[in-house]
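Hi everyone,

Forwarding the result from last night's run.
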Amino acid sequence: MNPKDIKILLVDDEPDILEIVGYNLKKEGYDIYTAKNGNEAVETAQNIVPNLILMDVMMPEMDGIEACEKIREFKELQDVIIAFFTARGEDYSQVAGFDAGADDYITKPVKPKVLISKVKSLLRRLKTTDNESLIKVDSISVNREKYLITKDGVDISLPRKEFELLSLLISNPGKVFKREEILGAVWGSDVVVGGRTIDVHIRKLREKIGDDHFKTIKGVGYKFISLKK
């Protein structure tokens, strides 16, 4: 995808951050929009439907966690990549972010070259494949091309990472996917995420798809189970 066709929304209450980050991303040819708090972020995201949102966590009026949750409520924003651009690196903050529907974290301060590399890595997730675009197991259907999940004929809305994780596990029911394999396939080998990231996303899938479909293999990974005998 051409950089000029990529819309990136930067959300931060610090004007200097917006200016510096925006300047470096504009040099790469990206179409940049800004917001200075969570309320503006939600409104702007609805108006422009960006490909990527880089958002601070601690902001006035509405913080990044709440803004992320509200953004994910809109169907047209389900496939937007959201990364928290923050100086906070605590595990609880990251878990809260992933629970809210975020895809990743970028820790600031960050060097411009590292930032550009990270953004390019995030945007590579926009690429989809036509191979095995439709998967059906039991009453669950996964349409990768249309980014659609149905269960018992009812559509289920999933954030991007939950969708990709479910797509991976359901692609081979009964197979044990090792944690390293899951991280590489869903988050990419060049993305550093916390150790609890997979667990958080599996918990969300258990709640939405059904606990019986997911089995934890202690110390190894996870597998998807067909309930039909």
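The radius of gyration is 18 Å.

Cheers,
N.
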